[in-house]
Structures are given as C-alpha cells and as structure tokens.
Amino acid sequence: MAIFDILIAPDPGLRAVAAPVAGVDDEVRRIVADMFETMYDARGIGLAATQVAIERRIVVIDLQDRDTEDEEHPEPVRDPHIFLNPALTWISDETSTYNEGCLSIPEHYAEVERPARCRVTWRDLDWVEHDEAFDRLMATCIQHEIDHLNGVLFTDHISRLKRDMIMKKLVKARKAS
Ligand code: GNR
Ligand code: NI
Questions:
Q1: Where are the domains of the chain?
Q2: Who surrounds ion ligand 2 at CB < 5 A?
Q3: Which residues does 107 contact at the CB level (< 8 Å), separation at least 6?
C-alpha cells in the first residue's frame, strides 16, 4: 500500500481526459487500494485517478464522516465505493447546491449548483456492471469525480471572479511553499 501525491491546481495534469479501464488486473486493484489509502489519509470523501496523475477512469468514494472514531470504536466506520468507467446516463432538471471542496484545491470552498439527482453506470472490481440512481451528497460527489476524469474542476462551475480569485491564491500558496 502507498499514498499517492495529489496534484494541486493549476497543475495541467488535472486537465487530462482519462482513458477507460479495459479490464481488472493486479495493477488496477493496486491503484484502487492506494487511492483509498490516499483519500482516507487526506480525509476526503472522494478521489479520482486524475488527481493522482493516473489518466484512467477510476473513482473511489466514501461518504462516511471522518469523526466516527471514539474511545469505544478506535477504527473509523468505512463505506467504500469503487467506480470503474463511471458514466452519467441521466441528470435531473432539479438542481441542488453544495459547498464543495476538492483535495486538488486545498482550503478553498464554493457553492456549486449541479443536478440534484443522477443515474450512473459503472463496473466494479469483478467487472460486474452496475446502474443506479443517486441523490443528495452521493449525486454531487459522483458528478464532481466524473468531472475530474474529464479534466473539469468545481471552480469551472462558479463565477469567473471567484474562480480567478481561488486560482490566484493557489499560485501564490505554491510559490510560498
Ligand atoms: O473531500 C471532498 N469533499 C467534497 C465536498 C463536497 C463536494 C465534493 C467533494 S469531493 C472532495 C474530495 C475530492 O477532491 N474529490 O475529487
Ligand atoms: Ni475533487
């Protein structure tokens, strides 16, 4: 197991369009395991392979809040979801707004309006096909992650003024570090 480095915007790698996974082998299984380790370490609720410089259509999500650890239960409760080649097949007209964050845009958050519900097809590690509708935070998160696979960031969905402000601060923070 290993923790990947996460690309930080405006890294051009975040604009890559990822290629479909052709099948599951040990390499894909290792990437998924390391993506979970990376996501849990960074305390994110989702991670797309694009964010760790792997241009493959692989997403991991775990919406469990990170504060399930306590004295009686030292291990956090996990609810891991794996999506290989996820595709949106339907989006609702109704929208919802979440205050989104992104591990590739650290310490910046913005209200993002997206379709409130969506339908997604994907494959799992046994190469079984799935087709499910999602709402609430899962709908927002899977759309955020599929955006990453297409080189799109949440800042592409907000006003240019807010986007430019965030990007300027990210460039400044990088220069300072
Ligand atoms: O950790 C994350 N939180 C989050 C909050 C609202 C909407 C989407 C997300 S995904 C983000 C992790 C990440 O950057 N995934 O690509
Ligand atoms: Ni993100």
A1: 12-176
A2: 102
A3: none
Digitized pLDDT (tens) for each residue of the chain, 177 residues in all: 899 999 999 999 999 999 999 999 999 999 999 999 999 999 999 999 999 999 999 999 999 976 667 777 778 899 999 999 999 999 999 999 999 999 999 999 999 999 999 999 999 999 999 999 999 999 999 999 999 999 999 999 999 999 999 999 999 999 998
- Integer CA distances (angstroms), 100 to 56, 70, 112, 145, in order: 23, 27, 6, 12
CATH of domain 12-176: 3.90.45.10
* Residue 145 annotated in active site: yes
Please indicate, yes or no, whether the overall pTM of this predicted structure exceeds 0.90.
yes
Ligand 1 in contact with 16 (CB < 6 A)? no
Q: Please state, in angstroms and rounded to a whole number, the distance separating the CA atoms of residues 47 and 36.
A: 8
Protein residue with its CA nearest to atom 7 in ligand 1: 100
Could you tell me if the CB of 7 is within 6 A of ligand 1?
A: no
